[in-house]
Design brief:
The protein has about 725 residues and is α/β, with parallel strands linked by helices. The chain is built from 26 helices and 26 strands. The termini are far apart. Bound molecules: ligand C2E and calcium ion (CA) (2 copies).
């Protein structure tokens, strides 16, 4: 059915019509008629002019007389055909000869009219033809547009970064874009007709089947899914895709008559998300693992422990938590460098893994601390056996980059439920038990007992208090005089720190220095002590104690600090303190590590005039080889040797040996802990230059010492000294 219009012979707006005839009168009358109906009309007198006009411009319609002299209508039609002029043509013929018309129609004419014209017939035919022409034109434009859009879509589909596919209702491919070849290395043809699960990795097939089965169900099913797809690249690693789908219901043309059956097609895309998945997996791994050893980290350990605890309490079973801390790791790390330290930690982790079973969790808790969870251990014995095994394994020397390294471990064990019934309690108590091992000489294990707790809590409280008090007046620098044995005058003072704790009263260094070292607060504390002592002693240089030397105890942790030398020199400069009047007391242990950077630091200070003393000499490693390497100026004989002088036994011999050796090395000797005149005389006879001890005075404040020793610097009557 044609679209209805008001009248079939109604003119079509602005149609251009060419009239070709050899009769000028006829042309004019036709023009008049068509003009009346608002057609634009041009006339050609004869075939030759018609051809010329057709070449010059385009017309919607040509009314062509067949019988014309010279160039006939047939000639015009032939010319149009040969020159691809597509103007719609209605031929007009005077004769009734059917042949003529048939030939014209065969040559491309659209319709024909007979002369003489019947105006209605003419107008209807013209109007028809023009309308048809217009429809054809519109159709052509549409077709061109469609072609363009089709090309565009095809381009988009084939250049999409995603795989684009169409599935039939059974889930079989009916279309795939070319991306499938690039991404999955399948040919499109081999997949068409195959089920989508053909390209899904075996592990995901079930999940995929379910998803696509649900896809066409009416309820709201998920519209995307993450699947591992098969890639024909030798199966190097898994490739993950996000498949999105868009089911579309279509009328089924082949449906049985009567039934309006619907058929589904599933349009879908598959996007490669392997990189994103790998990044996510890595982030996940990172969140729960220590990247150095690749062991579970603290978070994962806690997760596992929480799970194991639930199980153990439900089944009335026990479990064990171990805290494993490496002995001597710090020294190794500092002396051989962090790279070696890292390697060692990796090797230790590996060796620990060999000691445990499948269900156990070994984690790196931080630094050189490892924790171990034995979720299924029948008794304490079971746990201690594992601890024994670990200690044995760790004892075997490690070969790291050609360095043979010996380490040990201290292990604390907390058993559930006796050693704690919560996650935090178990970890804390295992830690406490481990500290017990450390305090007791390291390299061993301890099972947590409840009485260990109080000691540990005290430590913790003290550490917290200390953190708050470090730079306050709670810490006081006290001094003990050092006496020149020859002249018996004061020649120096040793600064000794005291803590006036708000609730515990005055605490001596032995009660808090170990805690300060563990928490590294000692670095701050020693720095402040050094500065304060310099300031105070400097003041008394001008107020009764001229040229008195100041000895300051330093923790190895401070000396190891990178800016240690600068810090000391800055303190001296700030307090205008003469470097040669400062003596830094360090312990033998620091020198044992044999580190060139420590040698350098001490040498720099020594070159600046600062004196270096070895404290508690004889109690440590008693190896003398390092004395030559380091710029040492003074040896301090430990008070334990001094105290035994009276007994005249081996100890005295040791003192003899130390003194004679020190004399050989031209070192100054300070004897500590001198409490009796007998000791003083003995030491003096040996040639010991400086003595220090309760015989000459308690540890007290500088004003007191100034008062006691006065401007003369003479030793007062021992009986007159007051207690600190
Ligand atoms: P030290 O350097 O060996 O200090 C000597 C210790 O022996 C002092 O104990 C002192 O009070 C005590 N003493 C002095 N004369 C006698 C005596 O005749 N007989 C006996 N039996 N003891 C005597 P103190 O003050 O408790 O210091 C203990 C340790 O704490 C010091 O041993 C030192 O290693 C450390 N220390 C003290 N102050 C500081 C400091 O500011 N920084 C650092 N890092 N360590 C410090
Ligand atoms: Ca000392
Ligand atoms: Ca000492």
């Amino acid at each position: 059915m044609r679209p209805t219009t008001p009248a079939d012979n109604a003119p079509v707006q602005e149609a251009r019509i060419l009239l070709a005839d050899d009769d000028p009168r006829l042309l004019e009358s036709l023009r008049g008629l068509l003009n009346l109906y608002h057609y634009q009309v041009e006339t050609a007198l004869g075939g030759a002019e018609a051809i010329r006009l057709l070449q010059e411009s385009t017309f919607d319609l040509l009314l062509l007389d067949l019988r014309m002299p010279e160039v006939s209508g047939h000639d015009v039609l032939r010319h149009m055909r040969d020159n691809a002029i597509a103007t719609m043509t209605i031929v007009v013929s005077g004769e009734t000869a059917l042949d003529d018309i048939t030939q014209a129609l065969r040559n491309g004419a659209y319709d024909y009219l007979k002369k003489p014209y019947v105006p209605e017939e003419l107008l209807a035919t013209v109007s028809n033809a023009v309308r048809k022409k217009r429809l054809e034109d519109a159709n052509q434009v549409m077709q061109a547009r469609l072609n363009r859009s089709e090309r565009l879509h095809r381009f988009i589909v084939n250049h999409s970064p995603d795989i684009i596919y169409v599935l039939d209702e059974q889930g079989r491919f009916s279309f795939l874009n070319s991306k499938v070849e690039a991404l999955l290395k399948y040919h499109r043809e081999e997949l068409v007709g195959r089920h989508i699960t053909t390209i899904v990795e075996d592990d995901d097939v079930e999940k995929a089947s379910y998803f696509f089965e649900q896809a066409t169900k009416p309820h709201r099913a998920p519209r995307s899914i993450e699947l591992a797809l098969k890639v024909r690249d030798g199966g190097r690693s898994k490739h993950y895709f996000e498949l999105s789908i868009w089911p579309v219901a279509e009328e089924d043309e082949n449906a049985s008559p009567g039934g309006t059956a619907q058929r589904y097609r599933i349009y879908g895309t598959a996007r490669d998300i392997t990189e994103r998945m790998e990044a996510e997996a890595f982030i996940n791994f990172q969140a729960y693992h220590d990247l150095l050893t690749r062991l579970p980290n603290r978070s994962l350990f806690k997760d596992r422990l929480a799970m194991a605890l639930t199980q153990a309490s439900r089944n009335d079973k026990s479990l064990a938590v171990m805290f494993i801390d490496l002995d001597r790791f710090k020294i190794i790390n500092d002396s051989l460098g962090h790279t070696m330290g890292d390697r060692l930690l990796q090797a230790v982790g590996q060796r620990l893994l060999e000691c445990i079973r499948k269900g156990d969790t070994l984690s790196r808790f931080g630094g050189d601390e490892f924790t171990l969870l034995l979720p299924d251990v029948p008794s304490e014995e079971g746990a201690t056996q594992v601890a024994d095994k670990i200690l044995e394994a760790i004892k075997e020397p490690f070969d790291i980059n050609g360095h043979v390294i010996h380490v040990g471990a201290s292990i604390g064990i907390a058993m559930y439920p006796e050693g704690g019934d919560t996650l935090d309690a178990l970890i804390k108590n295992a830690d406490i038990a481990m500290y017990r091992v450390k305090a007791g000489g390291k390299d061993g294990f301890q099972v947590f007992r409840s009485d260990m707790n109080t000691i540990a809590t005290q430590r913790l409280v003290l550490e917290q208090d200390m953190r708050r008090a470090v730079d306050t007046a709670q810490f006081q620098v006290c001094y003990q005089p050092q006496i020149d044995a020859e002249t018996e005058t004061i020649c120096g003072v040793e600064a000794l720190i005291r803590w006036d704790h708000p609730t515990l009263g005055r605490l001596g260094p032995d009660e808090f220095i170990p805690i300060a070292e563990d928490s590294r607060l000692i670095v701050e504390l020693d720095k402040l002590t050094l500065i304060r002592a310099c300031r105070e002693v400097r003041y008394y240089h001008n107020n009764g104690l001229p040229n008195v030397q100041l000895a300051v105890n330093l923790s190895p942790l401070l000396v190891e600090r990178q800016n240690f030398v600068e810090m000391v020199l800055a303190a001296l400069a700030a307090e205008d303190f003469p470097p040669h009047l400062l003596e830094l007391e360090i312990t033998e242990g620091l020198l044992m590590s044999d580190r060139s950077d420590i040698v350098d630091k001490l040498r720099q200070l020594s070159e600046a005039g600062v004196q270096i003393a070895i404290d508690d000499f004889g109690t440590g490693y008693s190896s003398l080889s390092y004395l030559q390497k380091f710029p040492i100026s003074t040896l301090k004989i430990d008070k334990s040797f001094t105290h035994n002088i009276k007994a005249r036994d081996n100890e005295a011999c040791i003192v003899d040996a130390i003194v004679s050796m020190a004399q050989g090395l031209k070192l100054k000797i300070v004897a500590e802990g001198v409490e009796s005149l007998a000791q003083l005389h003995y030491l003096k006879a040996l040639g010991c230059q400086v003595v220090q001890g309760y015989l000459f005075g308690q540890v007290t404040t500088l004003p007191r010492i100034a008062e006691q020793f006065g401007t003369t610097g003479r030793v007062p009557d021992p009986a007159a000294t007051t207690d600190a």
